[in-house]
Amino acid sequence: MKAVQLPNWKSEPRLIEVPDPTPGPGQVVLKIAGAGLCHSDMHLLHDFEEGMLPWHVPFILGHENAGYVHAVGEGVTSVSIGQPVAVYGPWGCGRCEACGRGQDTYCIDPLGGYDKAFGGGLGTDGGQAEYMLVPDARSLVPIPEGMDPVAAAPLTDAGLTPYHAIALSRSKMVPGSNVVVIGAGGLGHMGIQIIKATTAANVVAVDVKPAARELAAKSGADTVLDGSAEDIVAQIKDATGGGAEVVIDFVGIDSTMATAVGSCKYQSDMTLVGVGGGSFPFNLYAPPYETAMRSIYWGTRKELAEVLNLAARGLITPEYTTYSLDNALDAYAAMAAGELTGRAVITP
Ligand SMILES: [Zn+2]
Ligand SMILES: [Zn+2]
Question: Which CATH architecture describes the domain 159-295?
Fold first, then answer.
């Protein structure tokens, strides 16, 4: 089969031919319908030297995956051949306390151990290929009837991650409250839709790119601001009546984190999602008193089912461009050039 492989650290992906996977006991092979590209893939290609991550190259890229059950190994009874399913991306042991509450992201003993793999497309073979091996059927979430599996693919990360960030602060998203969403790209535009679909909060979206601001408005943001404006913090304070109850930074570079800190008021929640690698000085006065800061990583299996349910009911709709497997490298080039609006999804 054809697949997009990361051949080495600090290298570009390549399109290769590899043998089709076959399922062992408890395992499932999917025929991939859609495999999303994530901004974190850019960091995966370029930021790491051998030994910095506990993973080994080469592996097939793609950690946002959905498709149809193609073959099952011995003992698999929870899914049937041809069934459309989404892949819950982080692969935990299934036995520890974190896995027990469906939060494999914080598993103490991920499948294969930390020195081997953490999930498909993250140190072991992912879904940017015709077929994908999923090592445990419990990592599959049924796609609700009537929903396109291609649209389900980006929801497994670009939908799930903002959903988790929002869920942790939902008690503050009451009528009259404000949420500042920084970055209206693949995750941010889903975040805006999820806030509007599941809470009563007012959304102020901030992005430096005109196309992303358009997407923010289309996604339901009440106010959309240009993040490159010199007085952006003053504009946010103005739009939120002095600061927001919740601020979510989907970019995570120095400048967006400074904007995030400036957007808080007393007792805000400030959540960092973006992998931009930035930081900000933390002291007694900034962010304001009793602001709760957290970073997050992906979401829970239960939340993925909730995200798929919202999408199946038409309450959230991911924006994406599809690329064939033959043109997959064009998708990487478009992402590197910052030319994508929403997500890129490879459809083998
Ligand atoms: Zn991702
Ligand atoms: Zn575990």
Answer: 3-Layer(aba) Sandwich (3.40)
